[in-house]
Structure formats: structure tokens, C-alpha cells
Amino acid sequence: MNHRARNPFAAKGVYTQMRALLRSSQASLPPGAAGLRELALAMGADDAGVVSLGEPALDEQRAGILRLFPFAKSLVSFVVRMNRANIRSPARSVANLEFHHAGDECDEVARAIVRALEDKGRQAGFPSMGFPMEADNWPGKIWVISHKPIAVAAGLGHMGLHRNVIHPKFGNFILLGTVAVDVESEAPARPLETNPCLSCKLCVAACPTGAIAPDGHFDFSACYTHNYREFMGGFADWTETVAGAGNAKNYRARVRDSETVSMWQSLAFGPNYKAAYCLAVCPAGEDVIGAYRDDKKGFLETFLDPLQGKRETVYVIPGSDAESYVARRFPHKAAKRVGSGLRPTNVDNFLGFLPALFQRGQAGKLNASYHFIFTGESRRRATVVIADRKLRIIDGLAGAPDLTVTADAATWIACLRKEASLPLAMLRFKIRLRGDPRLLLAFGRCFPA
């Protein structure tokens, strides 16, 4: 695939210019996947690919996509480049300015593609690159399309160790967009044969929370709690801090003035990422690798050292692996204990959250099997196995448990949300244990969020 930028207006991101270009070329666009790719490039994408909705790589998303866009037969995946110097800056205002503008450009490109297809009598639609999302579904899946696996299936890159898509030319300095179309793609999906990720581990070294491990483990909770502090759950935690303070003096004792101003800035201008250092230091991609290959020491001094040495607040869950990591690896950074805002509303998302919130460092040498039997309005049975610092969840009851937890589903959720007392629930036999009760405490330490 040719990964060269082909649109003279791509850097400008000006919708009217895109439409002017379309009007001058729309009659000559070839049909099918080739035509869709050419259209995406003409509308401002820096690269694009097309994947049939029937591809196995989209099995998990297909039903959801068709609910939104029942006409969909193919997906156009595209990338918009970000300016590297901004993303690499230790100043979060500079980096976030680029994230916001590139995000707007993604949505602008997608909208231009859809308008062009509608003008040609086709059906097309697109979700936002990032936000807004379907907030009514919180804390479940609020995004409507997962752009990353679609981009991989369309041959635009592969996931790196840091869980970002790395484009073979532009590296991870990209944002992704997707357009659903009623055009059949005659060509099969052609993912890249090789992963551009260099396995250099610079993303591991840069992450202030230890969310990215050298062995490939990813601590979602650590990344989410800090980097997304001013999004979703972090904002919910902040509002509860405001409500719980009672008066201005108590609020100021809990929240510094700079944090209040930062939250205001996110509300006024768009939520700001606190880190995204993994993107900043990634040297993969043809356009990016030269500086790293020619002078690795200079690359580290220029891009990695300022991020590692930055004095900043790192938001962590009390008792989490991230809290231990910051104290050990970055003692000059101030770890601040906060809530994650990830509170389950039912037993299904309680079980669904567990892999994202599991803290393998806190699990330590724990080796236990748990049976959960939920009764009441929401009935569910599941087995949770924690062994060798790994988590496994099995639907239904499997094997011989070390501890069985039988609980009224609503009461269990209320206890997790700190809206009910666990000891009182046990006294009232709303929650019953069979086995060593200390294993329930050990289970809790693995999921401090």
C-alpha cells in the first residue's frame, strides 16, 4: 500500500476546500474499495484503507455497527497525522492542543467523506473520532465503533506495545476515523505483514504510572486513572469531592487551586490528557525512526528525559500497583490518591470490569478460585481464578472453589459502590460466604478501584 500523503489540503483541514476539491474530481472516482480510498484521500485523510464488514476481524463489532448503520457493507478506515513536536512537548497544553485540533480534523474528514457519498446517491455515516460518546451506557461500552481493530484490518498499521496503532510511515502520531458505507468491498482485508513496533520499550520507560510493562502486560486502571483524570470517571470523582467537602476550606484542603483551574480548563476547552507520553517517545515509523536510529542517546535525552524528569502530580488509586510504582520509580513526582469513578451498576459490568482493574502486583502469591452466585433480580454465576499473578474469568461454576460468595445482586453492587455496609449485609444474610473469609479480603486487594 502506498502510504504517501496525497492531499494538498490535508494539513489545513478546511472543510470548504475539501468540498471544492471533491466537486472538481468526483466524476472520475473509480468504483469499489479503490474509489473509496481515493475519496478519503481527496477529503483530507493522510492514508486510508477499506475493509468489508464481513471480515472475521470485525466479528465482535459487526452487530453493533449494523444497529447504528443498517446499510453498512464496508468500512473506510483513515488516519490523520498529528504534529510530532507538539505531542512530544512536556507542556500538556501544547500536546493537548494538537490532540484537540487533530481530533476535530478527523471528524471533519469523515463528515466530508459522508457528504461526498451522499451527493453521489450512496448511504454513509460516521461516529466521532473520540467524543462525544453514548454516555447513557456508562459505565459500560460508551463508544460506538472501535477504530483501532478496523485500522489494523484495513492495513493501516499494527498495535504497538503501548496499545496504540503504529502506522508504517507516520508512526503512532496519528488519530483514526471510520466511515460506514453501503459500498461492497471486493478486495479482502490485507493487514500489514510486519508490525512497525520496534519493541524498544521507550513507552515503558516514559509511562509515569507503570501501566505498560516490558512483558506486554497493560494496567488499564493505572492509565485510565491518571491520563483520563479530567474525563468521565475522574470528573465524577472530582464532583463527589466537591459534594463531600461541605465548605470551601475543606475543598481547598483536598484539591489544589491548580487542579481546580485545570478541571475548569478541560470543561471550557475540552478535556486534557495528563500524559500520553507513550506516544511522545515512540520512534517507530519511516518518518520518525531516523532520529532514533542515527543517535539513540540524543533521542533519549531530547524526548524521554524531559518527561521522566518532569515534576508533576500522578493520580493513583490507593493501594494500587501504580501507587507503588510512582514511589519507587519517580519519587520526584507527587502521587495523589483519588477514586477511579469506575463503579459497577450491575453484576455483568462488575465481572466485565475485573480484567481492566486487576492489579497483579497486589495479587502477589495469591492462588485461589472463587465462585460467585448472584441472586435476586440479576442472576448470574461465574468463577474467578487468580493464580500466578494472572486473572481468569469463567462463565458458570467451574472446579472446586476456595471461596463461594452467594449474594443478592443489588446488595453486592451497593456494597461495591459504598452505598451499603458489607458487614451489615452479611449479618442480614444478603451476602454469604463459604470458605476462608480472608480470601475475600485478598480478592479486594487485587481490585482496589
Short description:
With about 450 residues, this protein is of the alpha+beta class.
Count all strands and give the number: 13
Number of self-contained structural domains: 3
Integer average pLDDT? 92
Distance between the termini: 44 Å
Write out the strand line-up for the largest beta sheet, numbering strands in chain order: 11-10-9-12-13
pLDDT below 50 for ≥5 consecutive residues: which ranges? Answer: 1-12
Radius of gyration: 24 Å
Query: Main sheet?
Result: 5 strands, mixed
What proportion of the residues form beta strands (DSSP E)?
A: 15-25%
In helices, the fraction of residues equals 40-55%
Structural class: alpha+beta
Counting DSSP H or I runs of 4 or more residues, the number of helices is: 20
Based on Cα principal axes, name the global outline: globular
Organism: Methylocystis heyeri
GO molecular function: 4 iron, 4 sulfur cluster binding; epoxyqueuosine reductase activity; metal ion binding
Pfam family, one: SCP2
Keywords: 4Fe-4S, Iron, Iron-sulfur, Metal-binding
Helices and strands in order:
Elements: H1 15-25, H2 32-42, E1 47-52, H3 59-68, E2 74-81, H4 84-88, H5 92-119, E3 124-125, H6 147-153, E4 158-159, E5 165-166, E6 174-181, H7 202-206, H8 220-227, H9 232-245, H10 248-254, H11 257-269, H12 277-281, H13 289-294, H14 296-309, E7 313-316, H15 321-329, E8 334-337, H16 347-357, H17 360-363, E9 368-375, E10 380-387, E11 390-395, E12 403-408, H18 409-416, H19 422-427, E13 431-435, H20 438-446
Parallel strand pairs: 7-8, 9-12
Antiparallel strand pairs: 1-2, 2-6, 3-6, 4-5, 9-10, 10-11, 12-13
Helix pairs in contact: 1-5, 9-10
